[in-house]
Write a structure and sequence with these properties.
By secondary structure, the chain is mostly helical. The chain folds into two domains: about 120 residues, DNA polymerase, domain 1, CATH 1.10.150; about 180 residues, Intergrase catalytic core (hpI Integrase, Chain A, Orthogonal Bundle). About 50% of the residues lie in helices and about 5% in strands. It has twelve helices and three strands; from the N terminus they run αααααααβββααααα. It has a three-stranded antiparallel beta sheet. The longest helix has 22 residues. The termini are far apart.
């Protein structure tokens, strides 16, 4: 089977620097160049497909000759591997896309995944914070030094806009319109959207951009040109990474005494749920969050209904009466 002689995929987080079969490298290139998938998405596909290719080699076949019965064995092996169901489902989805690509490009005459049963991921509802819990997280940021100002601005902006952590860390100075209180976010597939933010986030950003805030973290010389335009900086004067921003959110969740681990995605869930709780239109929330499909946003309506029922059961004097 032909191999890519020198796979030069340099996407961020691409931690699997191995030669891949040329058809797989072509597929990853197609995702990047033709479909416009983000670097992190390409890296995830790459990791899944490296595992798939390794499994095929161990079983005496490859992506160009594997048949449906062998793929059934692959799925069965993955299901019993102990990996999370969501991880297995994601890998199988990557395999399906690969073989569909090979069929479309004429590399293979068939798609061996057509009749292979996938893996169902149990439908789970996001668990948003209550409004009081969000306030406790925001109030956990104390002090007025540069790092505290940055952390407060980051948390306020995440909750105000429902931004993904990668979107917040990718913000540059020109992406914020302070007069109109709008922020330009670049979502999956580099799709751009404008999202408003309120007074609390605006005040926190003003403090961060004041002389005692961001300016104190600016280095004498920028390591990268892109860092100079970054909204959020680390203590070394570089653009704040997703991992560092995740740690910021986690730290204040602990300070606030939340029982469950707080992640940036929980703040995104909370933003969406609270908007719907207060009467926001589902289509509006879809646009604000950058969901490609309304069905993705609809899960939050179920969350809001569950919260409504919980409040009713707790508050109505006859909700649990037996007679």
């Amino acid at each position: 089977m032909p191999l890519a002689a020198n796979d030069t995929d340099t996407d961020a987080d691409a931690d699997v620097n191995v030669d891949l079969p040329l058809p797989v490298s072509d597929f990853l290139g197609w995702l990047r160049n033709e479909r416009g998938r983000a670097g992190n998405t390409i890296s995830a596909y790459r990791r899944d497909l490296v595992g798939y290719v390794a499994w095929l080699v161990a079983h005496g076949t490859d992506v160009m000759t594997v048949d449906a019965p062998t793929l059934v064995d692959f799925v069965a092996d993955r299901r019993t591997s102990g990996a999370a169901v969501s991880s297995v489902a994601r890998q199988i989805a990557a395999v399906r896309m690969l073989h569909r690509f090979l069929l479309t490009e004429g590399e293979r005459r068939d798609d061996p995944t057509v009749d292979v049963e996938g893996v169902r991921v149990p439908a789970g509802l996001p668990k948003p914070l209550s409004e009081a819990e969000v306030m406790s997280v925001l109030d956990a940021v104390t002090g007025n030094d540069a790092v505290a100002r940055r952390d407060r601005a980051l948390l306020e902006l995440l909750y105000a806009t429902g931004a993904r952590i990668s979107e917040a860390c990718g913000l540059s100075m020109g992406d914020i319109d302070f007069d109109a209180r709008l922020v330009r976010l670049f979502g999956k597939g580099s799709k751009e959207r404008l999202v408003p933010f309120g007074r609390a986030a605006a005040a926190a950003l003003d403090e961060w951009f004041a002389p005692a805030g961001r300016m104190t973290l600016v280095p004498e010389q920028w390591r990268r040109r892109d860092d100079a335009e970054a909204v959020f900086l680390n203590t070394r004067g570089g653009r704040l990474s997703r991992q560092a921003a995740w740690a910021v959110v986690h730290r204040y969740g602990q300070r606030a005494g939340l029982r469950e681990e707080l992640s940036p995605h929980v703040l995104r869930h909370s933003c969406a749920t609270h908007l719907l709780d207060h009467g926001a239109d589902l289509r509006v929330v879809q646009e604000l969050l950058g969901h490609a499909s309304i069905s993705t946003t609809q899960v939050y309506t179920k969350v809001s209904q569950e919260r409504l029922f919980d409040v009713y059961r707790a508050a109505h004097p006859r909700a649990t009466a037996t007679r």
